[in-house]
Amino acid sequence: MEKQVEIRGIPLVKFKDKNVIDSIQKGHIWLNPVSMYRKAENETGDTVVGDKFEAMWPIGEGIVHIPDESLSQQVVNGYLKTTHMDDYVFCILKMGGMDNEFYFTDEQKDKLREFDEEALLIYDTTEFVQRIENAAKSQGYELNHSIVNYYDPSTDNMNLLYDLVRGMENIVFWKRDEYRYQQEIRFVIQRGNLQDDHLVLEVGDISDISMRLSIKDMLRVRMKRV
Question: How many helices (H) and strands (E) does the chain have?
Fold first, then answer.
Protein backbone atom coordinates (compact mmCIF):
# COMPACT_ATOMS: atom_id res chain seq x y z
CA MET A 1 0.00 0.00 0.00
CA GLU A 2 1.35 3.38 -0.95
CA LYS A 3 1.57 6.01 1.76
CA GLN A 4 0.44 9.46 0.68
CA VAL A 5 2.20 12.38 2.30
CA GLU A 6 1.95 16.14 2.01
CA ILE A 7 5.20 17.65 0.78
CA ARG A 8 6.23 20.89 2.41
CA GLY A 9 9.42 22.34 0.96
CA ILE A 10 11.93 20.27 -0.99
CA PRO A 11 12.06 16.65 0.26
CA LEU A 12 15.26 15.72 2.11
CA VAL A 13 16.89 12.29 2.27
CA LYS A 14 19.51 10.89 4.63
CA PHE A 15 21.34 7.70 3.66
CA LYS A 16 22.90 5.80 6.56
CA ASP A 17 22.95 2.41 8.26
CA LYS A 18 19.78 1.28 10.05
CA ASN A 19 20.96 2.19 13.54
CA VAL A 20 21.82 5.75 12.55
CA ILE A 21 18.53 6.19 10.67
CA ASP A 22 16.69 4.96 13.75
CA SER A 23 18.57 7.45 15.93
CA ILE A 24 17.85 10.37 13.59
CA GLN A 25 14.15 9.53 13.36
CA LYS A 26 14.01 9.50 17.16
CA GLY A 27 15.32 13.05 17.07
CA HIS A 28 19.06 12.79 17.65
CA ILE A 29 20.78 15.00 15.04
CA TRP A 30 24.52 14.42 15.13
CA LEU A 31 26.86 17.13 13.87
CA ASN A 32 30.39 15.89 13.22
CA PRO A 33 33.50 17.99 12.60
CA VAL A 34 34.29 18.56 8.93
CA SER A 35 37.67 16.90 9.54
CA MET A 36 35.83 13.56 9.64
CA TYR A 37 35.35 13.74 5.86
CA ARG A 38 39.00 14.58 5.22
CA LYS A 39 40.10 11.67 7.39
CA ALA A 40 37.75 9.31 5.56
CA GLU A 41 39.60 9.84 2.28
CA ASN A 42 43.10 10.37 3.67
CA GLU A 43 43.03 7.32 5.93
CA THR A 44 40.82 4.84 4.05
CA GLY A 45 40.65 6.13 0.48
CA ASP A 46 36.87 6.59 0.78
CA THR A 47 35.78 9.12 -1.86
CA VAL A 48 32.06 8.39 -1.56
CA VAL A 49 31.64 10.08 1.82
CA GLY A 50 35.21 11.25 2.22
CA ASP A 51 36.77 14.36 0.69
CA LYS A 52 40.35 15.29 1.59
CA PHE A 53 39.75 18.92 0.60
CA GLU A 54 36.66 19.57 2.74
CA ALA A 55 36.50 23.16 4.04
CA MET A 56 39.82 24.04 2.40
CA TRP A 57 40.20 27.09 0.17
CA PRO A 58 41.10 26.22 -3.45
CA ILE A 59 43.67 28.53 -5.05
CA GLY A 60 44.31 28.29 -8.80
CA GLU A 61 47.29 30.62 -8.72
CA GLY A 62 48.29 33.35 -6.32
CA ILE A 63 50.63 34.58 -3.61
CA VAL A 64 49.67 33.99 -0.01
CA HIS A 65 51.01 36.62 2.38
CA ILE A 66 51.05 36.09 6.15
CA PRO A 67 51.97 39.46 7.71
CA ASP A 68 52.51 38.17 11.26
CA GLU A 69 55.19 35.80 10.02
CA SER A 70 56.56 38.04 7.25
CA LEU A 71 55.97 35.14 4.91
CA SER A 72 54.87 35.15 1.29
CA GLN A 73 54.44 31.98 -0.72
CA GLN A 74 53.26 31.33 -4.26
CA VAL A 75 50.47 28.79 -4.57
CA VAL A 76 49.49 27.04 -7.80
CA ASN A 77 46.52 24.66 -7.87
CA GLY A 78 46.64 24.27 -4.12
CA TYR A 79 44.32 24.16 -1.14
CA LEU A 80 44.75 26.33 1.93
CA LYS A 81 43.73 25.47 5.46
CA THR A 82 41.00 27.63 6.95
CA THR A 83 39.87 28.53 10.46
CA HIS A 84 36.61 26.65 9.84
CA MET A 85 38.12 23.28 8.89
CA ASP A 86 36.67 21.68 12.02
CA ASP A 87 33.24 23.27 12.27
CA TYR A 88 30.40 20.86 13.06
CA VAL A 89 28.06 19.82 10.24
CA PHE A 90 24.97 17.73 9.61
CA CYS A 91 24.59 16.95 5.91
CA ILE A 92 21.48 15.78 4.08
CA LEU A 93 20.51 15.44 0.41
CA LYS A 94 17.77 17.59 -1.08
CA MET A 95 15.86 15.88 -3.87
CA GLY A 96 15.92 17.53 -7.27
CA GLY A 97 13.71 17.44 -10.33
CA MET A 98 11.59 19.86 -12.28
CA ASP A 99 8.02 21.15 -12.43
CA ASN A 100 7.47 20.37 -8.73
CA GLU A 101 8.31 16.71 -9.30
CA PHE A 102 11.12 15.21 -7.26
CA TYR A 103 13.22 12.21 -8.30
CA PHE A 104 16.77 10.90 -8.63
CA THR A 105 18.76 11.09 -11.85
CA ASP A 106 20.42 7.98 -13.33
CA GLU A 107 23.82 9.29 -12.18
CA GLN A 108 22.55 9.69 -8.63
CA LYS A 109 21.06 6.19 -8.65
CA ASP A 110 24.44 4.74 -9.66
CA LYS A 111 26.33 6.74 -7.04
CA LEU A 112 23.89 6.59 -4.14
CA ARG A 113 23.55 2.80 -4.25
CA GLU A 114 26.95 2.81 -2.51
CA PHE A 115 25.51 4.65 0.51
CA ASP A 116 24.90 2.39 3.52
CA GLU A 117 21.72 0.38 4.14
CA GLU A 118 18.68 2.57 4.50
CA ALA A 119 17.19 5.97 3.72
CA LEU A 120 15.17 8.43 5.77
CA LEU A 121 12.83 10.59 3.69
CA ILE A 122 11.83 13.88 5.31
CA TYR A 123 8.77 15.23 3.53
CA ASP A 124 8.08 18.28 5.70
CA THR A 125 11.32 20.19 5.36
CA THR A 126 9.83 23.39 6.74
CA GLU A 127 9.02 21.72 10.05
CA PHE A 128 12.29 19.77 10.13
CA VAL A 129 14.37 22.93 9.75
CA GLN A 130 12.30 24.71 12.40
CA ARG A 131 12.86 21.89 14.89
CA ILE A 132 16.61 21.93 14.30
CA GLU A 133 16.75 25.71 14.70
CA ASN A 134 14.71 25.53 17.92
CA ALA A 135 16.93 22.77 19.33
CA ALA A 136 20.13 24.68 18.54
CA LYS A 137 18.76 27.82 20.18
CA SER A 138 17.60 25.96 23.29
CA GLN A 139 21.03 24.34 23.63
CA GLY A 140 22.83 27.66 23.24
CA TYR A 141 24.30 27.15 19.77
CA GLU A 142 24.31 29.55 16.83
CA LEU A 143 23.35 27.53 13.78
CA ASN A 144 23.52 28.32 10.06
CA HIS A 145 22.16 26.27 7.20
CA SER A 146 22.37 26.54 3.42
CA ILE A 147 22.55 24.53 0.24
CA VAL A 148 26.05 23.44 -0.80
CA ASN A 149 27.55 25.12 -3.86
CA TYR A 150 29.74 23.08 -6.22
CA TYR A 151 32.75 24.45 -8.07
CA ASP A 152 35.14 23.42 -10.82
CA PRO A 153 38.58 23.10 -9.17
CA SER A 154 40.36 23.65 -12.51
CA THR A 155 39.30 27.31 -12.60
CA ASP A 156 39.11 30.11 -10.06
CA ASN A 157 35.50 30.65 -9.05
CA MET A 158 34.59 34.27 -8.37
CA ASN A 159 31.32 33.36 -6.67
CA LEU A 160 33.26 31.28 -4.17
CA LEU A 161 35.66 34.18 -3.59
CA TYR A 162 32.83 36.65 -3.06
CA ASP A 163 31.20 34.27 -0.61
CA LEU A 164 34.42 33.94 1.39
CA VAL A 165 34.88 37.72 1.44
CA ARG A 166 31.50 37.90 3.19
CA GLY A 167 32.77 35.38 5.74
CA MET A 168 35.33 32.57 5.71
CA GLU A 169 32.81 30.42 7.61
CA ASN A 170 31.00 30.00 4.27
CA ILE A 171 33.78 27.65 3.10
CA VAL A 172 31.82 24.71 4.54
CA PHE A 173 29.10 25.37 1.95
CA TRP A 174 31.44 24.77 -1.02
CA LYS A 175 32.58 21.44 -2.50
CA ARG A 176 34.23 20.27 -5.70
CA ASP A 177 31.78 19.52 -8.51
CA GLU A 178 32.50 15.80 -8.52
CA TYR A 179 30.23 15.71 -5.45
CA ARG A 180 27.41 17.61 -7.15
CA TYR A 181 25.22 14.49 -7.27
CA GLN A 182 24.94 14.66 -3.46
CA GLN A 183 22.89 17.90 -3.64
CA GLU A 184 23.56 18.66 0.00
CA ILE A 185 22.01 20.98 2.49
CA ARG A 186 24.22 21.54 5.51
CA PHE A 187 23.44 22.59 9.05
CA VAL A 188 26.54 24.12 10.64
CA ILE A 189 27.65 25.13 14.12
CA GLN A 190 31.00 26.89 14.24
CA ARG A 191 33.60 25.23 16.43
CA GLY A 192 34.89 28.39 18.08
CA ASN A 193 36.10 27.32 21.55
CA LEU A 194 34.10 24.09 21.56
CA GLN A 195 36.23 20.98 22.08
CA ASP A 196 33.62 18.21 21.70
CA ASP A 197 34.35 15.48 19.15
CA HIS A 198 30.72 15.86 17.98
CA LEU A 199 27.51 17.67 18.90
CA VAL A 200 23.98 16.30 19.18
CA LEU A 201 20.85 18.41 18.73
CA GLU A 202 17.80 16.89 20.42
CA VAL A 203 14.88 17.81 18.16
CA GLY A 204 12.34 15.27 19.36
CA ASP A 205 10.82 12.37 17.43
CA ILE A 206 10.36 13.18 13.73
CA SER A 207 8.44 10.09 12.65
CA ASP A 208 5.46 12.37 11.97
CA ILE A 209 7.35 14.13 9.15
CA SER A 210 9.51 11.31 7.83
CA MET A 211 9.49 7.71 6.62
CA ARG A 212 12.11 4.99 6.35
CA LEU A 213 12.78 3.15 3.10
CA SER A 214 15.34 0.74 1.73
CA ILE A 215 17.97 2.27 -0.57
CA LYS A 216 16.38 0.41 -3.49
CA ASP A 217 12.91 1.75 -2.80
CA MET A 218 14.13 5.27 -2.08
CA LEU A 219 15.91 5.55 -5.40
CA ARG A 220 12.72 4.58 -7.23
CA VAL A 221 10.62 7.24 -5.50
CA ARG A 222 9.03 9.99 -7.57
CA MET A 223 7.06 12.62 -5.73
CA LYS A 224 4.96 15.47 -7.03
CA ARG A 225 3.74 18.52 -5.20
CA VAL A 226 0.03 19.05 -5.88
Answer: 6, 15
